[in-house]
Amino acid sequence: MSKNRYSAEFKKEAARLIIIEGMSVAETSKKLGVSPAQLYKWRDSHLESLSGEAAASGQASPKEMAAEMDSLRKRLRKAERVNEILKKTVSFFSKDEI
């Protein structure tokens, strides 16, 4: 069994897909052909390196920003589902009036 060696740029891009683009680890794993466990390690490592940079510049922690982005994505998906339900409800009740 041979071990694949990945460049730092490849690892950073994989972490960016997960953190910034919001791709799931499973989806990223299939797309890149890397195990999910390895992607989690790269993501955590990337966030740690960014945390050091952010602390030096006085910015918010990347882990906090990533958690907030996840939370906002979930809220957006929920709002979109509610919006679709409301559209269907309005459509249903407007057909009865015609």
Overall description:
The protein has 98 residues and is mainly α. It has one domain (8-97). The chain has helices at residues 8-19, 25-32, 36-57, 62-97. The chain starts with 7 loop residues before the first helix and ends with a helix.
The end-to-end distance, rounded to whole angstroms, is: 69 Å
Shape verdict: elongated
Largest sheet: none
Percentage of residues in strands: under 5%
Low-confidence stretches: none
H and E order: HHHH
Number of strands: 0
Helix content: over 70%
Secondary-structure-derived class = mainly alpha
How confident is the prediction overall: mean pLDDT? 85
Number of domain modules: 1
What is the overall number of helices? 4
Gyration radius (Cα, Å) is: 20 Å
Short key terms for the protein model shown above:
98 residues, mainly alpha
